Amino acid sequence: MKAAFYSLTSCEGCLTTLITNLGPNLEALWRIFDIDYFKLVREPVGGEKVPRVDIAFVEGAVVTNLDRKRISQIRANSSFVVALGTCASCGNIAYSASRGVDLKRRRLREIEVFEAEPLSSHVNVDFELSGCPVSAEEFTEALLRLLNGIEPKQPDFSVCYECKMRGNRCLLEVGKACLGPLAMGGCGAACPSVGAPCYSCRGPAVEADLTAYLKTIRRHGIPEERALSAVRAFTGKKILGLLKDGKG
Amino acid sequence: MRDSGNGKTADGNGNKNGNGSGTVSEVILDTNELRLIEGHGRLKVRLSGNRIDAEFHNLEGPRFLTSYLRGKPAEMAPLVASRICGLCYTAHSINAAEAVEEALGVTPDGDVVELRRLLYLANNLRSHMMHLLFLSVPPIKGLISVFRLREKDLVAAGTRLLSTSTQLIEHWGGRSVHVPNVVVGGFGALIRGRELMESISRLESLRGDARKFVEHVLEMELPELERFRTMISLKADAYPTYAREAPLIINDGSTVTDEEYVNDLEEVVKEYSTSKHVYFRGSEATVGALSRIMLNRRRLNPEARDYAERIEWRINPFLMIKAQAVEVMHYLEEIVEAGERLSDATISPNGYPCVGNGKERGADPCFSDRSGKGIAIAEAPRGTLCHACEIEGGLIKDYRVYTPTAVNSKSIEMDSVELVKRFRPLGGEKLKYVLEDLVRCYDPCLSCAVSLDFLSDR
């Protein structure tokens, strides 16, 4: 089997997470796959050419003309495309951030900048692995499933579920605009476990119910606009669906 | 002059076609997309008449994180700033917390500062290991990947150091990348010094691995490319990493305060790069491991100092990887020492001070009554990192990040010109590889650099 790891506009935190957290197991990836493209680990085979592969993992959002060209080449040459991390699956902070900027103010010689989009705005994506950054464990699990011909799956529970499992005090109860009830779990409730409110960095949970959430925070005296501004931070394009459902 | 506007950023649109003097320029070297660096970049060398020019292109798309922060509550800064970079996220979140604290007049206590320093050190160690092991050393040896290194024990030793430093960050920061535990005011969760010691002793047991790795890098043969330029590093009582209120030292012997430093920085738009280049006093300056070693090596820890004495330090950018190797040992020694000082400390959660101190529930921003300006400067893995912010009524009014790569961009170009001049007889194909090695020695981070995007005003 052939695999490739690509990076579009991002902080490259997802790929570095895989490198550091897989640690000594990283080399094992090469025993399972032929990996012709993984820019931080090896010189790509065939230079800038996008190799034909079975599975392509892509981190980052689509922002520049180079990203647009790259993602369509990747799609054309890969049987299965996995969006790696929240930039690729939702557009992350860049989605909202780029919508407040006058992108035509200056022009560059060769690079054009557009409003940030997740991969799915441009090509069909076969599977999304969210997270800012992505979790190495979830990556491994998805990989093992793919290798065995089983469909990988996203966590179908919210951050609250894992937060309760860890016995944390509920942050909504102390008046913080925590997005746990809306957010896709799988992170082990990393932020609420250190007292920081969840910003839903993995996008919305399957069961996210904005109407119910707003009712809950009102009960706790948390201003609605504060929570909505937080939802807009990381969820990127997926906020649109959530808002539609909530107001709908 | 190829620099569009040569320092005047106000209308970078003015001269779209370069110098406009009509000289025909020919691209004599083009790396295409640089391999084995963080982000997407490219280096082109042009010949116009007898003149050689280099262009360091940042091809990474802007994510507008700093402009996103405008109008947001001050305490959001560390969380968003962390996303600037997947390699030095802790540096960004700590600098952000500190800049905001200064603006708001919040002073975290001594143990918090000490623990932040530990996190900073662990992140610098992780970043250096990632850069040396995966990105810089293999191609200089002519290899396509770290896994082709013949010395398997070296790879294993390096990987152990990389994983263990990552575990340290995970343990103290709450996650291995983009740590949520660094918040404005201190730390979000309770930290006990004793628990720190366990993870530190794991790192201490890797001293042999570190020696093996450092010695290997120090013995590498590197090209000679000495060229004088301004070098800058933080100056502290100890070897500089993270220190509050420290001045910066320049290699002419003078010092500047953080405020003077920021005032002397100039943002320059380049028509070929998504990130601005940053000039210091109208010209180039080099920051990073080599600057730190050349300006502060007396303050290195004992074993690192012994290693540093083996090298004849000159302003040769290739030596940056040896400087990083010496720092790997220094950081390890420093983490062990700092851990011992913190072993009895208990740091209680004191982030988000608005909660439970009588303020109205959920009334964010927490610091709605405060305004001010703040600057935080520290030595991130790639060099002097500066966050500057302005806050009004608890909301961020302006936020700017001057990253080491944005500062080094001009030096990367000037060194490339120098390299082509001196090594031209090697011929294009070989020269291209040496040129790529040169850029990599700077350990450029283009995702970081683009946080000062070409569309940002000022």
From TrEMBL, chain A:
One of its GO terms (molecular function) is oxidoreductase activity. Keywords: Oxidoreductase. The keyword Oxidoreductase applies. Transmembrane segments: none annotated. The keyword Glycosyltransferase does not apply. It holds the Pfam family Oxidored_q6. Residues 11-145 form the NADH:ubiquinone oxidoreductase-like 20kDa subunit domain. This is Coenzyme F420-reducing hydrogenase subunit gamma. It comes from Methanosuratincola subterraneus.
From TrEMBL, chain B:
One of its GO terms (molecular function) is nickel cation binding. Its cofactor is Ni(2+); Fe cation. Mg(2+) binds at V401. Residues 1-24 are annotated as: Disordered. Ni(2+) binds at C85, C88, C445. Fe cation binds at C88, C448. Gene3D superfamilies: Cytochrome-c3 Hydrogenase, chain B. Keywords: Iron, Magnesium, Metal-binding, Nickel, Oxidoreductase. This is Ni/Fe hydrogenase subunit alpha. It comes from Methanosuratincola subterraneus.
